[in-house]
Here is the input.
Amino acid sequence: MTEESVENKLPVVFDKYDIKGKRFFFRPDNVYALKIDKITMSNGQMSVENFRLIPLLTFAQFKRFYPQKPKLFQFDIQKMDFKDVVLKKNRVSLANADFQNPVLSIYTTHAAVKKSDKPFSYEVNLDDIQLNNATVQILKPDGNKLFFARNLNVNVNQLKLDKETMENVIPVGYKDFRFSGKDIHFSNHQDINAESIALNPKSGEMRNISIIPNGEAKGNTSMNLTAAQIAFNINKWEFIDKKLNLDVKDVLVSNVNGIIKGRTVKSDKKVNLNGIQFPIVIRKVTLKNSNVVYDKGAQPLAFHDLNATINDIELLEKANKTGMDLKIKDYFLTTRNFAYKTKFYHLSVGLLKLNKNKVQVNNFAMKPLVSRAQFIKMIPVERDLYDLKANQVTADGRWDLFSQNKFINASNVIIQGADAVIFRSKIPKDDPKEKPLYSRMLRSIKFPVTINTLDLKNSKLVYEEDTPESAGPGKLTFSNFNMNVKNLNSAKTKGKPTRVDIKINCSFMNLAPLAVNWNFDVADQRDVFTISGRTLNLPAQGINPFIRPYLHVTATGTIQEMLFNFRGNPAGLNGTFNLKHKDLKVAILDKNNREKKGVLTAIANLVVRSNSGRLPEDVKVEGIPRDPTKSFFNLFWKGIESGLKKTLIGKNVDKTEESVKNTVSAVKDMKQSVKELKEEVKNKKESAPPKEEKKKKGLFKGIFNKKEKPETE
Here is the structure.
């Protein structure tokens, strides 16, 4: 032994050895004692019975007296057999090592593991090593189990540990290995259990897995799941430039059931990816017969009877080195009774089929979870409440919604048999936020979107609106609704046209055909639009379900033809309006929509033109300003309203309206004056002192005199 050999090499050097003995005891320090019942050796084969590494302190004492040490070990091996032990310079090697029934316990503390400044200077070579029926447990500082496994069986061929392997993600080298075990338990912020596990360099399988939260998630992603099987096959895994290079052939996950809760707190922890050689490739992932709920922020997303296949997955490092990006070549997903729950809605789908070229959705529904009255109380400002259904939605094309370079390029989207009821109450406060026009909304999508053709077929749209003054909601109905949209886009695809053309044909109020043409250019920063339309033979009473509760007015007669042609932008709207009508009359109702107000009705019908004539002239709709806090349809309705006024009342509509207001005001003033006069007379009668009755004169004098009551004697 020399100083150099003690410092840098194994402290003992010899050529041959022969050891026999019983009841070995060695105490290397104040923490451990080493005991061996028996050692025998014959022809290079060594056998060790009842090897025990025993702590001399309890775990509590260890943490108290050695606060800087991270681990306390306890090791028991019933029997060890190995041969050809070589201890030469810095090298330890042996062959055919066999460990029977080993039990390893590791107690961890909160002390940080210090990285040694000295390089690893030994070389360990184990030709074949076997662990039979091993039990391993690692305990947390509080005494609970971090890891536990029993019936572990390990077989490693040509295990190597040296300075070079220590720098890899997995610090050992090997030619081949086999690993199996039962009752695997791991507990971090979740308890993970597996009934069995089997691994080798080319494949792996776990059966009857459960993942259960244990209260330590603290806002991180947590899972409460069971799975019948997780299996995988590996094409290649190796180290290139000390980095792991992984190519997975396939992964199978079957019969997953349970809930995944999404992260609710933002994590500032950065993932260290220095030990990975990108890309990581997974050729195929298959998910079978599963029922999974993903819940984030109390908004559960449920997949029932979920089956999915994903092909050619690549995990890439992001350009800014902040994490991983995902690239998928192909996928196919089906699920039944798909459901999603938000604060106000329950969304459901009878069947969902999805791949990179086709989408099919059957029996879509979006149902409110609250009543209209509850909804009004829950919203701080105006907001629509939707009740939607659709028999089927299909789409064909190409899209990528998983990678960093997202895009949608659909050749067609078809929505069949939609039924939509939209309700808005004017009782809550107005929403002060600016409402962009549709061209700007599409332009704000951050990735390329192009839908060549969107068709809405055989559908129905109902819009209902109420105000604090209305007696129930006003109602507009558009049935037999068919819409064709050409080139719906986000103006993010080079060389593609950006103009959107929309054609609508429907039945207005179930009484008259309505046709609308609407277009705008998404790339046009001015957000100019044009909208034109025509309706025929609309009985005026058909619009009463909307105007009666909302305006306290009913109408009779016929709108023979209505034409409008408007052009607008975010500032306002201009255009022309034409209305051909016959026998049009209005009736003004009281606040309960019952009693006809005769005087006001008469005044209104004096002003309104009951007949337009055969060829009415167009009227100009000019200078209709847009309220930026209102929707596009609010501006459109203002244009229709202006055209109706000018057609029914006249071009000098402002003067006529003022006259009507003055007339109505005069009538109201007169009524008020009469009411006040009656009240004044009544008050005077009640307050006046009794006067002596005047003698009646005339023809009937004495006939109608009351007989006075005689005085009591």
Observations:
- The CA atoms of residues 466 and 473 lie 4 Å apart.
- Confidence is low (pLDDT under 50) at residues 692-713.
- The chain is about 15% helix and 55% strand.
- The helical segments are 3-8, 59-65, 372-378, 438-443, 544-551, 598-607, 632-648, 653-687.
